[in-house]
Amino acid sequence: MSEAEEIIKRLELLPHPEGGWYREVYRSDELIMIASLPERYIVPHCFSTSIYFLLKSDDFSAFHRIRSDETWHFYLGSPLIIYCIYPDGSSSQVLMGNKLSDGQFLQHTISRDCWFAAKCIIDKSFSLVGCTVSPGFEFQDFKLGQRQKLIGLFPQHTSVITEFTRQ
Question: Residue 60's CB: how many other CB atoms inside 10 A?
Answer without folding.
Answer: 22
